[in-house]
């Protein structure tokens, strides 16, 4: 697929939150689609006006209308709102459309059954996608055509790196590791900045020291190709400052806390999917 071909497609977003804006910005930055070809359906008037002003895209407060005019429909609502959206859009999709869902924890069969439509892609992106530095893990239903797979890959590629998984079970794992991952990094950044301020640095200098150190360390790790443990050993001298700091981190159970945090996020993602299945079953049975 070429960029010119993708620009012929109309793309609609159901939900205009942070991740929807991240994807819109990624698509526009890469010039994969014109602003006129994008419509965001969002219930909040002030948010619609903000997106229209900052991105130059079309906005609407009607999900059904947005879906009817689009080749690609991207679901960006919160997990607690997805069942209402599925009920509203049930039976509204037509052959040839592709549905891409970034709703955390909501499984392919839940979306397919709710919409009565089979061509579904499920994605777990993260917020760095707004700057083309995202990590998106995705999977697709059997009904997704080769052409639609390329559409999805092209869209997600505009947001950073993308990784396709044949087994949907990896999406809940990705939610815990890469989807929620920036949260862990931001907390570590915050803790390091606060510690630097406690030592006596002005906050703006502490911020620069920490962000550049983390950025440089990540680039170093990627370019070196070495395991993090090896890199850590390279900079840890006997009796040195790194050894003293690492002793306290290990004593405080850093590894265990991080592992428990990721496990908690994974279990939460799975529980969201189980809740959606149960709730949707009641909706369809009424």
Report on the architecture of this protein.
This protein has 286 residues and is α/β, with parallel strands linked by helices. It folds into two domains: 3-168, NAD(P)-binding Rossmann-like Domain (Rossmann fold, 3-Layer(aba) Sandwich), CATH 3.40.50; 181-264, ProC C-terminal domain-like fold (Orthogonal Bundle), CATH 1.10.3730. The chain has helices at 3-6, 18-29, 45-55, 63-68, 82-89, 108-115, 146-157, 169-179, 181-199, 203-224, 228-234, 241-251, 254-285; strands spanning 11-14, 38-41, 58-60, 72-75, 98-101, 120-124, 134-140, 160-164. Strands 3-2-1-4-5-6-7-8 form an eight-stranded mixed β-sheet, with helices on both faces. Helix 8 crosses helix 13 (254-285) and helix 9 (181-199) packs across helix 10 (203-224). The longest helix is centred in the last third of the chain and has 32 residues, at 254-285.
Layout of helices and strands:
Blueprint: H1 3-6, E1 11-14, H2 18-29, E2 38-41, H3 45-55, E3 58-60, H4 63-68, E4 72-75, H5 82-89, E5 98-101, H6 108-115, E6 120-124, E7 134-140, H7 146-157, E8 160-164, H8 169-179, H9 181-199, H10 203-224, H11 228-234, H12 241-251, H13 254-285
Parallel strand pairs: 1-2, 1-4, 2-3, 4-5, 5-6, 7-8
Antiparallel strand pairs: 6-7
Helix pairs in contact: 8-13, 9-10
The number of helices is 13
Number of DSSP strand runs: 8
Query: How much strand content do the residues show?
Result: 5-15%
Shape: elongated
Q: Report the sheet with the most strands, covering strand number, pairing sense and barrel closure.
A: 8 strands, mixed
CATH topology of the largest domain: Rossmann fold
Strand order of the largest sheet: 3-2-1-4-5-6-7-8
Number of domains: 2
Structural class: alpha/beta
Low-confidence stretches: 1-6, 282-286
Helix content: 55-70%
Overall mean pLDDT = 90
CATH level 1 class label of the largest domain: Alpha Beta
């Amino acid at each position: 697929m070429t960029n010119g071909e993708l620009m012929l497609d109309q793309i609609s977003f159901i939900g205009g939150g942070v991740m929807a804006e991240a994807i819109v910005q990624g698509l526009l930055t890469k010039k994969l689609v014109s602003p006129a070809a994008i419509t965001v359906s969002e219930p909040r008037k002030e948010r619609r006006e903000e997106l229209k002003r900052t991105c130059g895209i079309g906005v609407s407060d009607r999900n059904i209308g947005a879906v009817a005019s689009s080749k690609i429909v991207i679901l960006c609502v919160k997990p607690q709102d997805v069942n209402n959206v599925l009920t509203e859009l049930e039976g509204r999709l037509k052959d040839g459309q592709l549905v891409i869902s970034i709703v955390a924890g909501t499984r392919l069969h839940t979306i397919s059954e709710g919409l009565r439509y089979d061509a579904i892609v499920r994605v777990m992106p993260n917020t760095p996608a707004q700057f083309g530095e995202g990590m998106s893990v995705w999977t697709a239903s059997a009904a997704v055509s080769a052409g639609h797979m390329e559409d999805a890959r092209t869209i997600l590629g505009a947001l950073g790196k993308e990784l396709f998984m044949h087994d949907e079970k990896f999406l809940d794992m990705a939610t815990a590791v890469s989807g929620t991952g920036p949260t862990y990094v931001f907390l570590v950044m915050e803790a390091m900045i606060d510690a630097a301020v406690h030592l006596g640095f002005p906050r703006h200098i502490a911020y620069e020291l920490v962000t550049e150190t983390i950025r440089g360390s990540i680039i170093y790790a990627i370019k070196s190709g070495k395991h993090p443990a090896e890199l850590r050993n390279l900079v840890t001298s006997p009796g040195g400052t790194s050894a003293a700091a690492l002793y306290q981190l290990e004593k405080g159970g850093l590894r265990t806390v991080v592992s428990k945090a990721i496990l908690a996020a994974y279990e939460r993602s799975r529980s969201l999917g189980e809740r959606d299945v149960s709730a949707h079953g009641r909706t369809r049975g009424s």
